Amino acid sequence: LAKTTQPISMDSYEGQEVNITCSHNNIATNDYITWYQQFPSQGPRFIIQGYKTKVTNEVASLFIPADRKSSTLSLPRVSLSDTAVYYCLVGDTTGRRALTFGSGTRLQVQP
Amino acid sequence: DTAVSQTPKYLVTQMGNDKSIKCEQNLGHDTMYWYKQDSKKFLKIMFSYNNKELIINETVPNRFSPKSPDKAHLNLHINSLELGDSAVYFCASSQDRSYTFGSGTRLTVV
Fold first, then answer.
1. Which of A29, A60, A94, B15 is the most exposed place for a label (fewest CB within 10 A)?
2. Cβ distance of B30 and A34 shorter than 8 Å
3. Please, what sign has the CA dihedral across residues A90, A92, A93, A94?
């Protein structure tokens, strides 16, 4: 299984752009990269997913270089409510291998 | 409507008891999971079912037994509860490549 490495914690201020980078050197051909957000006392929530290049949705962008050995989650203009733990996951599309969560990045947004 | 619902939300019980946690999803997903999140916040996969068939069974004590009466339900039964079983248990379901998690069941064994 592809292991992921991401910073343990990050701090930011409201209105700033936050970029969280995840390393996944052993990513396999079938693997997608998915990011989840978890608030205290809640289950993880899907944010964004991609295979290569750039993906953008209403809440975030995901940048994946050509070698796919890393990815960067970009949160534009964060607010206090973006304070959460962000998980980078790598997994295949067959569903026969459950997603494995790493330790995540604890993002603290200050006023 | 809650997509993935777990009951109960909180469960406090004594060592040695047997308890069950229920999970239901109304998303029509084929695959369901149980994850355990310990005090250090690591989320670990325990079981995975696809269409009522067990496809992943990580190294968990056999005191833990999942049961899937139909593809919309995946219950977790735990026998002879131990202090170390205290954690938050999350049910999830998936279709294609994204997972939907329930809000968790906080189990406290005293």
1. A29
2. no
3. negative
Cβ-nearest to B43 among A32, A45, A101: A101
Q: Pairing between strand A18-23 and A70-75?
A: antiparallel
Interatomic CA distance for residues B86 and B65, integer angstroms:
16
Instruction: Render each residue's pLDDT in chain A as its tens digit; 111 residues.
Output: 568 899 999 999 999 999 999 999 989 888 899 999 999 889 999 999 999 989 999 999 999 999 999 999 999 999 999 999 999 998 876 656 677 788 899 999 999
3-state class (DSSP) for residue B84: helix
Owner of token pair 């070698």: A67
| Minimal CA separation from A18 to chain B, in Å | 22
Contact A41 B94 (CB under 8 A): no
Using CB atoms within 10 A of its CB, is residue A58 exposed (0-12), middle (13-18) or buried (19+)? exposed
d(CA A68, CA B20): 41
Residues in chain B: 110
> Does residue B30 sit in helix, strand or coil?
coil
Task: Determine the 3-state secondary structure of B73 from DSSP.
Answer: strand
